[in-house]
Amino acid sequence: MQRVLNRHHYFIHPRDTMFKKLIATLLALFAAAAFAAVDANKASQAELEGVKGIGPAIATKIIDERKKGAFKSWDDMVERVKGVGDGNAAKFSTAGLTVNGTAFKGAAAAPAKAEPAKPATPAVAAAPAAKAEAKAMSADEKKAAAKKEIEDKKAAKAKEADDAKKAKADKAAAAKKDGKDAKPAAAAASAPAKK
Predict the structure, then answer these.
(1) CA dist., res. 89 & res. 95, Å (int)
(2) Which are the contacts of 77, defined by CB distance < 8 A and separation ≥ 6?
(3) What is the pTM of this model?
(4) CA dihedral 76, 80, 82, 84 (to 10 degrees)
(5) How far apart are CA 64 and CA 27, in angstroms?
(6) Are 142 and 134 in contact, with CB atoms under 8 Å apart?
(7) How far is CA 31 from CA 14, 27, 99, in A?
(8) Per-residue model confidence as pLDDT tens digits over 131-144
(9) Spatial CB neighbours of 192, under 8 Å, sequence gap ≥ 6
């Protein structure tokens, strides 16, 4: 049997290289398992806390709500677990949390620009009633209702923007009219009185 030498003149047996490949493969599998998705319906407290952004308090809330019944969807989990809104759900999903094996398909993780507070509208008052109806709807109906709600919000924003433009134009027209009326009066006041 012939010896195999490397450049340092150490004996390398073919079995040793096979062993190194096996170890490398096992390490790769363990690394992949470490970053595997964690299902909210099956995970332990420690597994939930292993997801970035979930601490002991939220993990406990998830487990307590799960004891009452498995989460049917992300919407169900967001509704039942206080402290998990659409924004956090998106963050948890990108960090590896799933509900029934599905990732969150809702709002983006990046928050939108904050807008100044506006007076309450009737649509906001109807929100609790919409949530109660959403519980009784199927998944397709929920998607359709959510889409309609988004379209209604866009329409309301567009109407507010149009109203604001009209108010601004009316104000500018009134200021322009007042400016024209003020000029002749100012000219008459500054002109010497004719006798």
Answers:
(1) 10
(2) 40, 62, 65, 71, 84, 89, 99
(3) 0.40
(4) -10
(5) 35
(6) yes
(7) 26, 6, 22
(8) 555 455 566 777 77
(9) none
